[in-house]
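Hi all, a correction to my earlier message: I attached the wrong file for HIT domain-containing protein. Here's the right sequence:
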Amino acid sequence: MASCVFCAIIAGDEPAVWVEREEHAVAFAPLPGSALAPGHTLVAPVEHADDLLGAAPVALAATTALVQRVARAMRGALGATGTVVLQASGADAGQSVRHLHFHVVPCWPDDGTTHWPEPPSAHVVDGDPHALLAEMFE
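and the right structure:
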């Protein structure tokens, strides 16, 4: 996709600090100054998909498998004792780049931060939300 910055990075048209490049997924450092922690890494499919809902199964599987390998590498190389995986799909979720990607953020006991959404949503759904979800699979 011509206007997608991640597609440009993947094509080599924009600079990147690469962690890993594979046939269906890539891992690279976020833009300078935007890292949430040392080693914070973005993992994205090579094939353009706007978000989680638009990803082809092969691209999604390759991307999540690479997320797992990046998290393992953070434990081994950086001594991270935990990882947070963040993914936003859609503007209302805070997605700023319209190319599916996951943030893999290493965590340590002394880092003094949490990456969990606060406060919880105030949105009200009419009915039992889990029952409504289950109905979609019937």
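Sorry for the mix-up. The domain at 5-118 is CATH 3.30.428.10 (HIT family, subunit A).
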